[in-house]
Amino acid sequence: MLVVGAVSVASALLPALHARLHLVDEMVPLVFPAAATTGTAAIGVILIVLSRALRRGKFRAWVLATILAAAASVLHLLKGLDVEEALMCVALTGLLLRARREFTARPDPRSLSRVLAVLLVGPVVAGPIGFVWLALDSRGQVPGTSMAARLAQAFLGLIGIPGPISFVSEGDYDQAAVALLVLGAAVLLLAVLAAMRPAGGPHRLVADEQGRLRELLQRWGWLDSLGYFALRDDRSVIFEPAGRAAISYRVIGGVSLAGGDPIGDPAAWGDAVRAWLDEAKAYGWTPAALGSSERGATAFHRAGLECLELGDEAVVRTGEFTLSGRAMRGVRQAVARCERAGVTVTVTRMRDLSAQQIADVQALADHWRDGAVERGFSMALGRFGAVEDRDAVLVTAACPEGVVGLLHLVPWGTDGLSLDLMRRSRGTENGVVETMVAGLMAAAPSLGVERVSLNFAVFRSVFARGERLGAGPVLRMWRAVLLWASRFWQIESLYRANAKYHPEWVPRYLVFRSPGDLPRVATSALRAEAFLVMPTLGRGGEAVASPTAGVAESGATTGNDEEPTVTTYDTAASGGGRSGTTE
User: Fold this and answer.
1) Is residue 362 assigned to a domain?
2) Domain with 299 in it
3) Same domain, residue pair 123 and 94
4) Contact, 526 vs 332, CB < 8 A?
């Protein structure tokens, strides 16, 4: 398809063989070769555009490609007896007809309205453009041509119908006809692009689905530290037939990107994965999962998908955490330095804070954010301070001048927390993050928290094994590449920032269908995490999440005038956290 489209465009742009063109001119009016040349170029471009949709098995793309390939075979003959190109188009038509059963993917549910909008608005825009061109470039038109005639000529010319204008010569007529037909072809191309646009998912989470997901998380949320992030506002969800398990995902660039593990009963994970894969096949999406645990990756693998280890998640057991000992010397010194500077740590549930308190620190968190885009997908909630997340925990660090840092953690079952957000004031005392982590660990018993998921370290094992004595040349070279990349992205520094807490390292995986899908999956994952922000028309960027929010200092009252459950901890005793910024 791509080759035939490129050949058709090149054939339309290159001059026809003189002998063949002379034969055509004797058989048909002169306007036919010019119109056929324009039509061939337009069809070639459309075939190139359709090639991607055909790879995804889109039925609508198959119908349009089959019709256009058959039409192109005729147009190649009309524009200059280009028999070779015509035979290519005939062969493509035959292949498409023979492979009919391979193209079953449904279109985007919203694409019909987009196509109708383009077909209605396109001529309204293209017609006046053609009219202005005919009015400004009136050479070749007989004297006395009226504006009404030019307007009629502009709209009729979009579909190749001769208009009321009389031209001095056939060359002038051909020039105007081809130009107007190009405008019409542009409208058709825009309609094709709208029809073939990747589906964006049935819908985002609604209240009923949120409730069903929360019920599954209440019972099975302890399985995956990333489970709570399935409640992100920008995700869709598909349940297995009995409702015992679900897959939370987002469609980006034709990729159905699941986040973390399936939610719910592990015995039903296989059925949920199959339902998700069936939906992806029905819409022509490429299935992939980002940040799956070993248990989740196994379920995906059993369904026929491939897995690639991305890195490790740092998990701290609060009962085992201590600041004492030589191994924790660096963290202990950082905490002591902040204590001498007057930094105190406050730990509280979000439900114990007033709306004003949340709004105050929300402003600080927005101010501290690095850039305008809220990053995160698989390990971020994207709506810090929302009413529905009142079981989340907020840790703040404050000095006499005010709040200088915060951690926001979401529930991980009933006895765990998973770091969602970390922010701190620029230029503040080094060690603020370590101090907040230590304060959280000290408060853990009163919160009923036994484990805390910290940050994710990409390719952690490469750094850990590559620096050991006896590491092989391939491992050392791979580590050198990552060290070079760390000059531009926080790769090694995030590993070091988590390693100092001596956590339990839990591997996380990227799940994909085939190696050929990896470039598209990687691009979609970068877009989901907002490391790559694509321009969009008519709506905001896909990757921008909800504004962040936070809390104020301890001691303020709640909305119902009761004393909030806020505790200030001595961080010299113990500490832990997921940090997105290194100290």
Assistant:
1) yes
2) 207-304
3) yes
4) no
For residue 116 the two structure tokens come to 């109708």
What does the buried/exposed string (b/e) look like for 523-535 if buried means 16 or more CB atoms within 10 Å of the residue's CB?
ebbbbbbbeebee
For residue 581, being part of any structural domain is answered with: no
H or E element, residue 327: none
Together in a domain, 244 and 288: yes
Cα–Cα distance, 364 to 548 (Å, whole number): 9
Which has more pLDDT, 190 or 359?
359
The answer to whether 543 touches 535, Cβ cutoff 8 Å, is no
Convert the pLDDT of each residue in 539-575 to its tens digit.
333 333 333 333 333 323 233 333 333 444 444 333 3
Q: How far apart are CA 232 and CA 283, in angstroms?
A: 22
Query: The domain spanning residue 552 has which CATH number?
Result: 3.40.630
Q: Any idea of the CA torsion for 477, 482, 486, 491, to the nearest 10 degrees?
A: -140
- Asked whether residue 139 falls in the same domain as residue 74, the answer is yes
* 87, 190, 335, 381, 575 from 441: Cα distances, Å: 73, 57, 13, 22, 4
In a domain, 151, yes or no: yes
DSSP labels for 375-421?
--SSS--S-TT-GGGTT-EEEEEEETTEEEEEEEEEEETTTEEEEEE
Q: Can you tell me whether residue 219 is helix, strand or coil? A: helix
Assess whether 114 and 175 both reside in one domain. Answer: yes
Long-range contact pairs involving 275-282 (C-beta distance under 8 Å, separation at least 24): 275/238, 275/239, 275/240, 275/241, 275/247, 276/238, 276/247, 276/249, 277/303, 277/304, 279/238, 280/256, 281/57, 281/104, 281/105, 282/104, 282/105, 282/106
Number of domains in the chain: 3
Domain boundary among 261, 279, 304: 304
**3-class SS string, 119-183:** HHHHHHHHHHHHHHHHHHCCCCECCCCCHHHHHHHHHHHCCCCCCCCCECCHHHHHHHHHHHHHH
Cα–Cα dist 411/321, whole Å: 19
SS3 percent helix, strand, coil of the chain, rounded to 5, is 50, 15, 35
Both tokens assigned to 522: 């990687």
Residues 227/412, Cβ–Cβ less than 8 Å: yes
Backbone angles phi, psi at 292, to 5 degrees: -75, 145
- Nearest alpha carbon to residue 292 among 521, 495, 545: 521
pLDDT greater than 70 at residue 577: no
CA distance 50 to 61: 6
pTM recorded for the entire structure = 0.66
> Is 521 inside a domain boundary?
no
Please name the residues in contact with 136: beta carbons below 8 A apart, sequence gap of 6 or more. none
Q: Which amino acid is at 416?
A: G
Is it the case that residue 440 has pLDDT exceeding 90? yes
419 and 539 co-located in one domain: yes
